[in-house]
Amino acid sequence: MEHVSGDIGAGNVGADADRVGLVARVAASFGRPVSIAWLVAFRVLFGAAMFISMLRFIVYGWIDEFFVNPPLHFKYWGLAWVDALPRTGMHALFCVLAVLALAIVIGLYHRAAAVLFAAGFTYLQLIDVATYLNHYYLASLLSLLLACAPAHRTFSVDALRDRSHATDAIPAFWLYLFRFQVGVVYTFAGLAKAQSDWLLHAQPLRIWLGSHTDLPILGPLFTVPGVPLAMSWTGFCFDTSIAWLLLWHRSRRFAYVVLLVFHTLTGILFPIGMFPVIMTIAALVFFPPEWPLRLGERLRSVVQCNRAPFGAARHVLAPRDETRLGASRHGMLAPSRIALAVGALYCAVQIGVPLRFLLYRGNVLWDEQGMRFSWRVMVREKNASLTYLVREKATGRVRHVNPRSYVTRIQEREIAAQPDLVLQLAHHIRDDFERRGFGPVEVRVDAFASLNGRRLARLIDPDVDLAAVRDGLGKAHWILPSPTEPPPHTHPI
Amino acid sequence: MSMTARTVRTARWTLAFALAFSPGGCRKPAPAEVVNTGRAVTPKTPPVPPSGAGGTGGAGGTTGGAGTGGTATGGNSGTGGNAGAGGTGADPTEPFSKAALLRAIADCAMDRYSEFRDIAASLDDKAGAAAATVAPSDVTAVREAWIATMSKWEEVELFRFGPMARATDPGGNDIRDQIYGWPLVNRCGIEERIVSRGYEAPDFGTALINVRGLAAFEYAAFYEGSDNACSQFSTINAHGTWAALGAAEIARRKFAYAAAVGKDVLQHATALVDAWSPSGGNFRAQLLGAGTSSTTFTSEQKALNAVSDALFYVELESKDWKLGRPVGLGDCTTPTCPEALESQYARQSTVHLRRNLAGFRRLFQGCAARNGGFGFDDWLRAVGATDLAERMLGALGRAEEAVDTLDPPLEQALATDPARVTAVYIAFKGLTDLLKTEFVTVLNLELPKSTQGDND
Asked: How close is the nearest chain A Cα to the Cα of B98, in Å?
């Protein structure tokens, strides 16, 4: 197999594949050499974005806010052992990650830098569930892929230092994997919007647009009847189709312009930090793999004062690129069976995890079971009021505990609407009360939530003693069903 | 591949990327760089006109009408008074807008601050007289003045945004804590200063907030006992300096202490009014210029978010601290915790709660006569959430009714009928549940102190 795909060229893929069947065809397709330029560009741009991301944490004081100040961190199921470092350690970690991101940019000790960055950044995400964000999760995944990919084989300090591993071409496997990852994000983000709140009632977009009616030019538009609904459908259509439009060469440029406009707008309208930047960078993987070279050629022609028109650059570059690729077909191109298996497993997980909500048979926006890691980006506006009722079993005395006694205001906002985190805090309160000598206690909650502007409703069964409920991945029957009425028809003013 | 070829290839790569990301271009002149510093050098709109010389009733401009309760923001004239008809009222024909809501809120806040400043001036006068004579009539007068001052202040508490808010909040300058630091009250610290005459020191105004402000005033003016709250190891007990003063001198010094606190409170009340006045800090312009000329608020939504944070006073301070803790629902080891009551000595805790709700109603429903004018309820109605506005007003009414029917008052009910106090707590919770859920959701407001970081 490997010798087939290792030497295979674009022209004889089909002929070889006929002989070895579907798996071989897939393997051959994955082993097809493509320019490494796209991956190098991604490495540089993504590394720079991550560097800026780390700087934002440092400059905005978020390290203390999210990781140092909270007296309690909420744990992922099965990862309770992950804890924050002391303050100095956390600050040092962010500095180290910033340096590692720079190392990724320049390709210095890339493999080690990318692995350490992926590990460090993922560790940050695992410290506290309350800090979970979809784009942090995406950054972790992309960091992981980047750590595995041969992104340093050229245009890097590593390539300058050790030219024996330098190459122009890599297997298409990596290109497909990155495209798959980015496509999954958009597609699931789109599918998450295929529900009545978004498509019929334009919620929560109506609510959010109401905050931006004083925006120059656009603001007054948001108050026009029908515009929020049109924007909801636009968002849905964009998310569900953009990956496919980027894949098709005829629509690619148009799609990317639309993508730029879309992410610029969402960046202006919503506090989503680096997400638009990351997606704008990540979507470049849909362009032909040699796009950076073509762009360089074009820019060079521009620098040379239009001596070579844009069209000429393509003709000049294409054959030269083929030559480069031809010169690079040495063994390393075909992904091994193990690599293919790991890649397939990775893809299966990326499809399966966002779909796990189907097993819970509830409204994922309400019960949040299956919410994380599923790319449900910007589909809910949910706020909750939460009071713990702690009952001493011995005396029957009930105390009302405000979660703020244990968590920061930021954490309170996050956890109050997420039942599994409400449960975690209930266990913490139980342990704290028992440690303080109040004896065995029962912990119930008075929890009300409003989803996308609906009338507030009880989120959690007030009769259930959460102190006795075990955390787990199964269906949480102590979460009450979501309200059935539609969200209110608010209008931005 | 030879070293030379690799070097050439790497150099080409480097050149390609350098060109791709170089800022040069074809030697065209770079466009004029625009650096957004977040500060508008040239306002996009004309500057917000200052309040009318006579007060904010006039400042309402088109909405002010006959501003009878105008606040003297620029000078000494104008006694403020209650927001009478049209004082901060809105033109009933004016359609709702966020700008109009901000204007109504700003005018309402300035009226409240100005009224408080005037009452604080009266308190200062009476405290000075009581300190000089310690005559029963003067003592009674100063106590009545404190009750009147606190009655106004407890309403003003709901207007804790801008300079009155914490320094970490937009435009915040901690003025609230300078005037009323409750629940931070250090009785022993006050008593140590009574012995040392620390209240006469020129730097008394820089002492910790837990020995100054209206809470310290309450202790000094109302507590008639000659004991102290310091431990036996405290200097005043270990050296016997407290006991050596004698009851009469302790009483005299307490009123002298109250007089010093009164001056300090008046100073900060004046600072608060000045911080809003056009001739001072002109925070009013910051609020009204939100999204245009304001350097504090980049949008009207952010300004309204800062204001809405103040509404949450009824959740933490009123519900949890003033009710939940004393009645034993909070962290209290005994069945009830009367020591957590707000008004320990003047026994005005019930009145204070009532005034908190009055402040909430002004902010939520409107500040003009009969709570006319723009409030957050108008915003809710304007976005189509009339039902929510009505339910919130209903919940507010139930909380007010629960406080009004709290007879005997909180201090006594805590001992005789704690269930009644719990019922008041539950009534407050009915309001705050709506505040924390539907209200912030529908208006897309952030809960206080929860806006750090990114989203999704």
From this structure: 8
